[in-house]
Amino acid sequence: MTDAPSPPVSPLAELLAHALSYPEAWEDHPWGETVVKVRRKIFVFLGRDREAGCHVTVKLPRSAPFALDMANCAPTGYGLGRAGWITATFGVGDDVPLDLLRAWIKESYQAVAPKTLVARL
């Protein structure tokens, strides 16, 4: 008997696991979206796992100009873009740059988390 291969992990599931690895990070589901918070503040929106792809929203005080040069990134709506929030959108079959998104999640955590928690990284 052979073990069946495990199904591939979705990019959103991988990014969620990464975000939850930060001190005091926890998952919440306001507005039907998956978000990760530190204390009561959101530091990453992971949207919904959809057939149409995925989107990731992070606060990028340092990397926003670089991110906005990418074709799949735009300032986040609802006025969040003015505060440095960027949304990256990927369609089904798109190459999702997980390493880059992990770095952006870290930057977002550092921007939102209390300094005492950031110091623990």
Order of helices and strands: HEEEEHEEHH
CATH topology: Aspartate Aminotransferase, domain 1
Mean pLDDT score: 88
How many DSSP E strands?
6
Fraction of residues in helix: 25-40%
Count the DSSP helices: 4
Note the main sheet: 6 strands, antiparallel
How is the largest sheet built, in terms of strand order? 1-2-3-4-6-5
The structural domain count equals: 1
Protein name: Putative DNA-binding protein (MmcQ/YjbR family)
Pfam families: YjbR
InterPro entries: YjbR-like_sf, YjbR/MT2646/Rv2570-like
GO molecular function, one term: DNA binding
Describe the protein's architecture and organization.
It comes from Nitrospirillum amazonense. The protein has 121 residues and is α+β, with helices and mostly antiparallel strands. It has a single domain (11-112), classed as Aspartate Aminotransferase, domain 1, CATH 3.90.1150.30. 27% of the residues lie in helices and 26% in strands. It contains 4 helices and 6 strands, in the order αββββαββαα. The N and C termini lie far apart (44 Å). The model has no long low-confidence stretch (mean pLDDT 88).
List keywords for this structure.
about 120 residues, Aspartate Aminotransferase, domain 1, 4 helices, six-stranded antiparallel sheet, alpha+beta, about 25% helix
